[in-house]
Amino acid sequence: MSAPAALRPRDLVLALLVILVWGVNFAVIKVGLVGVPPLLLGALRFMLAAFPALLFFKAPKVPLRLYLAFGLTMSVGQFAFLFSAIHVGMPSGLASLVLQSQSFFTLVLTALWLRERWQGNQLAGLLLAAGGLVLIGSAHGASMPLLGFLLTVAAAAMWACGNIVSRAVGRHGPMNQLAFVVWASLVPPLPLLALSVLIEGPAAISTALQGFSLASFASVAYLAWAATLFGYGVWTFLLSRYPINRVAPFTLLVPLVGLTTGSLAFGETLQPVHFIGGALLMVGLFVNLFGAPLLARLRLQWKA
After folding, report:
1. Count of other CB atoms within 10 angstroms of residue 116
2. pLDDT digits (tens, 9 = 90+) for 188-212
């Protein structure tokens, strides 16, 4: 039975809802960081993502090393850097945009680690995205500290490392990906707590926990249940029903939601160079996703 050519109305609504949840996620992080330091916020997120959800899912049969590798890259590495970036002043909307560079870090890592060859459209997309990142980074200042930009790029690189681990996980046969995410959420809390103690200090942790507000809990709950469990659960469901090239392009809308939310909630504004750099980054991502099929169609039309 072949996969449907287009998303059914209900599934289209679900896909757009996930994009909305993931786009708003960046503003929620900023709210959570008001009362909770970034590394502690990350630890609390994954504690709540793991418990009590793991009581309802059986752990997939995946080697322990892959649970550890996924948890340390996709979760600890990505979110320690991302939360810290927003904490030091990276605009939440711009963070949602720069984080999309993970697609191109993944491309580089698959070439170096998995020996995959680049196609012409992938190289073109990589060069466009690199130019966009350089432009965005060159416009650092009061509205976007250079440290925040670099930390966000580091978060994207860690997400890419997590994608490589996900490839290895996928070789262990069909599985409930949401169950894997839930059980892998057991890995991040201890490393993030240890980093929080070492970097943020016991006093900051104690102050945050004693003054833990309803807004802090709502932020942690959103990050754990909406962005992690609901987002990954629905996304996995969609990927199981439709070809990847029908579902993956929806992620292009995440920065649009993130930038809009940041502007409405916090009054975040971008300089013209940010818009130009962001446009180059998104065009590069578009070329990477759709360049090959578009070129193939053009060749067929030319031959005809």
Report:
1. 12
2. 999 999 999 999 999 999 999 999 9
